[in-house]
Amino acid sequence: MSTPELHDVSCVVVAGPDTDALEQSVRSVLDQTMGNVEAVVVDPGADGPARAAAQALAADQPHRVRLVRAPSPMSVGASRNLGLDAARGRYVIVLGDGELLERHACRNLFDAARTTGADLVAGRWTRLTAGGKKERGPGWHPQLHARTRSVENLADVPELVARDSLVTGFCVRRDFLRTARLRYAEDLAHSEVLFGVEAAVGARGITLVPNLITTHRAEPDPARETPAIAEANDRVAGLLITLGRLDLCDRRERAFLVDHVLPCARTFPQLTAEARRRATAGLAPHLEGRVDTRALDALEPVERVCVRLLAECDTDGVLAAAYALGRPGTVVSELTEWEGKVYWRAHGLDDPRVREVLDVSELGHQHRTLGEVRLLNRLTRCGVEGGKAVLEGQVVLPGGLVPDRPPLTAWLDVRVRGTGRRGFRVPVEEVHYDGGAVVWRATVGLTAPLRDVGIRDRPWEPQLQLGAGGQDITTELVAEQETVGTGHGLTVTGTNRLELRLAPRHRAARTARAALHYATHFRPARKVRLRLRALRKRWGRLSGKAFKVRVYRRVLRRLPVSKGSVVFESHTGKCYGDSPRAVHQEILDRGLRLRCVWSYGASAEGFPDSARLVPRWSWRYLWALGRAEFWIDNQGFPHALAKPRHTTYLQTWHGSAYKRMGFDEARLKTQNAPQRERLQEAVDRFDHFLVRSEHDVNTLARAYGIADERLLRCGYPRNDSLVAARARDESSGRFPRPSVAAELGIPDHKTVVLYAPTFRGLPSGNKPVRLPLDVRGFADRFGDTHVLLVRAHYMEAASLPACPPGTVADVSAHHDVSELLCLADVLVTDYSSIMFDFALLDRPLVHFAPDLDAYAAERGSYFALRDDAGGPVVETEEELLRVLATLKQTDGAWAEARRAFAVRFGAYDQGRAAAGVVDALFGERFGNSERFGNTEKRDGA
């Protein structure tokens, strides 16, 4: 007989050992904004303070808190089943130990369930991190729970069962639990993993909501928990195989490696040797025989090796791989080169399956010299003898780096951390080769005559300087805490770097140190520190953007105009390039009497000495903008800065449009009115807007609401050099190449391919993007005859793999893209506006667009690229490589389409755009009549 439904939602809480956590969990249930909610507290049957706390909670709220007692001690899974049996709500939520319900959680879940009739409704959850100081949710949550939606087929949301999404943060219809006979596995330590998947595959309807449901999920302990989670994962895999869901099973296996196995391996440097051994022994049985190429394909080379070593129960090997995971690019093993490839080790290469996993050629270590490579220098012994630290270590040194084994020199540089100053040098007493490693020994004194300059106790970092055959390399010392121990002035950081804390050597030094400590820590000094902290906080507010904007609006933009002053900016200060640079150069060539100011972002490197430079958002920047007579940029000065009445603003823009822009964008159409008004106010500052064809007029100008009288139909000044380059090609050929070829070390016999993909949105954490093109595959196939120049979008940074010298170069930091276009023989792009500029050169253009349909559907487009492109459109890497290999034979078929493409999108680019802009903007006010004399001088030079 089923229990009658007396509540809308029942929340099951199992009493754990932490009474405070139990009380907080129950309190989060009672504090729900939805009233008809009960808390079912399960006493698992063990004596202790939790039993008394559970009884007190039930006595305090007898109508909303019910206590269910276990007849004898039982597992967490069995205790949860006891709570499910006792629940009286229409829907049931189960909270883990210490988990809290967000205040509106029950209302959000119940409303969604009542609206859709789903058996299961799931939302987001967060877990503790950083030692319990922070919380965050899994990385896959934002996409999975982006909006409220009903799920008909798990194939549409594979992450729901492929990842541990349903371990908490969901409710289940109680009738469904009864009819499906869903129970927690009583013999699993992490039974919630299997329960969530069983609920998902059995539910008649699933609804996902974007709301946060559960917080304070316990911080993971990978080394201790992963073997138990692996057992639960085995059960899940068996269930999916039984149901015939092999696709979900494969995804589950890959996710298990990424979410649990690799995080466990990453903790090895922080574990003791015994803890590492237990973790390896616990995981190996679950990985053995299941580490196939399908599960490993999505992993990076070191990650693949790490999983393989875990499956082999190679604890020391996993420790070395963990150091490589934490220090990308570091050589941690004796690499072996065989049949043109580089492998992690020599053992096991007879098996082709093992070779596939151990192949680490794409790390590029074979292309680096000793001075360029990072080597792992791990302490093998650390002891203190007579006030001195005896350090012994081993540096991994593959034979390929120093094949002839030259004599070694070594010493320790001991520096103060964070200052860059060299403290002192310690000779290395012993250093010699030992197989594929260098073994060394040194003794470091743990005292110093005086402390380092400053009032803080600064740690000192020893680094080993190793020399061999005229090449030098610096290696940091890493160690496990177990090796170093505690006390004696030696410590290990959270990233396993060795640190020293030097004690004063003489009485005078000790006395001075004690006096300084007292002077900086007694009560008046503490008050002074608090006052200084408050002053720094106030100064921070005064130097913040909000305060600067107020001062700019109220004071600076009302100041008198500085006649003849021009503020230039390119790509929000990221570079000295594009059309603003071309206009600036025209001003210099004419000798106009203008005072030019350039803004820069992170660095002023590469900006001209002929102009005054100001950091973006500095007070000097705001002063210059407030008094300038002219603003010139290609993207937009900060929207919050209104243009002064005396200023003329030239917006050169940064490219013609393929994707929808401005108010044509879907995301802008869904914004509220104030957001759209702010953008319109920013655009209304433009006095002149450059266009290079009627396509720009019908797209950009219309999309931003720019009136026709503000348009300058003269083309882009940055493209004057492209028009000139095409004229040179037609009159005298392609050689000699531009000077940038020599700067990049490109020989004349190689074909230059410029790869410039468009902006696709910043990845999480602003990390470098992964390019759609396999750069290493290109280098392997065309490295002898081609050079690939990679130009990431100015709002992104690309991470390139190590490739053979002279095959691939990252030119993303090059200031002027026009110089790169003049150098390139072929352009490979997708939807970037660079395609419209390159077409002016009448050189081969290839569109590599693997996500063309998805991109066009998401962003929208102004024309069909497949129909109107100026070159072949390919969607796979194999197609791209095939096109590049046969380009000489097939490019002629695209000549007419490419010229039509250039005419359609660059009709006004005639090579005199910079001159036209200067004429229109400055006239003859600033010495423009001197132009012809300057031109004659240049021609005669």
Helix and strand content put the structural class at: alpha/beta
Low-pLDDT ranges? 450-455, 762-766, 929-941
* Main pleated-sheet profile: 10 strands, mixed
Strand content: 15-25%
State the total count of DSSP E strands: 38
Helix segment count? 36
What is the C-alpha radius of gyration, as a whole number of Å? 33 Å
Bulk shape: globular
**Share in helix:** 25-40%
- Overall pLDDT: 88
How far is the first residue's CA from the last residue's CA?
A: 102 Å
Structural description of this entry:
There is one protein chain. With 941 residues, the protein is of the alpha/beta class. It contains 36 helices and 38 strands. α20 (578-590) links the parallel β26 (562-569) and β27 (595-600). α9 (222-242) packs antiparallel against α10 and α11 (273-287) packs across α13 (301-311). The longest helix is centred in the first third of the chain and has 21 residues, at 222-242. The protein starts with 6 loop residues before the first strand and ends with a helix. Residues 450-455, 762-766 and 929-941 have low confidence and may be disordered.
